[in-house]
Design a protein that fits this description.
The complex is a heterodimer. By secondary structure, chain A is an alpha/beta fold. Chain A has helices at 18-34, 61-73, 92-99, 123-131; strands at 9-13, 37-41, 48-49, 52-53, 83-86, 105-109, 136-139. Chain A has a single domain, classed as Rossmann fold (3-Layer(aba) Sandwich). In chain A, strand 6, helix 4 (123-131) and strand 7 form a beta-alpha-beta unit. Chain B has helices spanning 17-33, 60-73, 91-98, 122-130, and strands at 8-12, 36-43, 47-48, 51-52, 82-88, 104-108, 135-138. Classes of the chains: A alpha/beta, B alpha/beta. The A-B interface holds A 1, 26, 29-30, 33-34, 119-121, 125-126, 129-140, 144-145 and B 1, 25, 28-29, 31-33, 104, 119-120, 124-125, 128-129, 131-139.
Chain lengths: 145, 139
């Protein structure tokens, strides 16, 4: 079902927001219908203030990202041997574009944590739509717009 | 994915190779999911200074209709699962309106006006901003 040079994998951007859960459900349904694998990706960065890392007692961003990604992966309908979770470091848009190279599809929410009341696409979905090397699906937020 | 009806997948058609890529993607998706396809083509009168230009032998509606039906005819999806719509108006709003209540809107990343320096064409960009259903930008 994919074109010859793409792997049968659906990549989905995860950030723990309600919107990213909608994206995950869409990606899951597509992967199940197509018999594809599912790759959940939660990007993270070291929090900084004016270029300096901000120390957070007891907070490891990579650990938080892994928790978000693994919680999202719990209970997906795709067989577990075809599900992977990744927590790359970097800005979310760039990470998703890179990680989805060679995949069949990249699925993102329209907006992430800033979804409430906003009509414009968020920066990550906009970045992905412009820069991805594969088809991109933008899943809208549930609120009427 | 949706309700108890077959899902509806709307695809923008303009005759460009990019739009054909979008149609091919939508066709594979419809085959896997049992969705009905809705092929949508928009046309506008050529205009000069706000006045429609009428030329001998210029029938944009008929041309659009012929084009979308040609695309439909070339598809492997059975004809009773493919609708066509010919809409007068700007393509972005026409596609978004045709996708009200649909399960997905599928567009190419560029169309006939492709400018190589742009990553995303104006119609696909419009659809990403305004569609109320999941939008697929195919490349």
């Amino acid at each position: 079902m994919t074109s010859a040079d793409r792997s049968p994998i659906v990549v989905v951007g995860i950030d723990g927001s309600t919107n990213s859960e909608l994206a995950l459900r869409w990606a899951e349904a597509y992967a199940v219908a197509a018999g594809y694998g599912l790759r959940l990706v939660c990007a993270w960065q070291v929090p900084t203030s004016f270029g300096h890392p901000v120390p957070h007692e007891g907070y490891e961003p990579v650990v938080a990202a892994r928790e978000v990604a693994e919680k999202a992966a719990t209970g997906v309908a795709v067989p577990p041997e075809r599900v992977e979770t990744l927590v790359p470091m970097g800005p979310a848009g760039e990470v998703l574009v890179e990680v989805s190279r060679g995949a069949a599809l990249l699925v993102v929410g329209h907006r992430g944590h800033t979804a409430i009341g906003e009509r414009l696409p968020g920066s990550v979905s906009a970045y992905c739509v412009h820069h991805a090397h594969v088809p991109v699906v933008v899943v809208p937020s549930a609120r009427p717009r | 994915m949706a309700n108890d009806q077959a899902p509806i997948v709307v695809v923008g058609v303009d005759g460009s190779p990019e739009s054909q890529q979008a149609v091919d993607w939508a066709e594979r998706y419809a085959t896997a999911s049992g969705a009905t396809l809705r092929l949508v083509i928009a046309w506008e009168h050529a205009q000069a200074y706000g006045q429609p230009m009428m030329f001998e032998g210029y029938h944009p509606h008929e041309e659009a209709d012929a084009l979308v039906n040609k695309v439909k005819g070339a598809m492997a999806v059975p004809a009773d699962r493919v609708e066509t719509r010919v809409v007068e108006g700007a393509p972005g709003p026409a596609l978004v309106a045709s996708a009200e209540g649909a399960d997905a809107l599928v567009v190419g990343s560029q169309g006939h006006g492709a400018v190589s320096s742009l990553l995303l064409g104006s119609v696909s960009s419009y659809c990403v901003h305004h569609a109320s259903c999941p939008i697929v930008v195919v490349r």
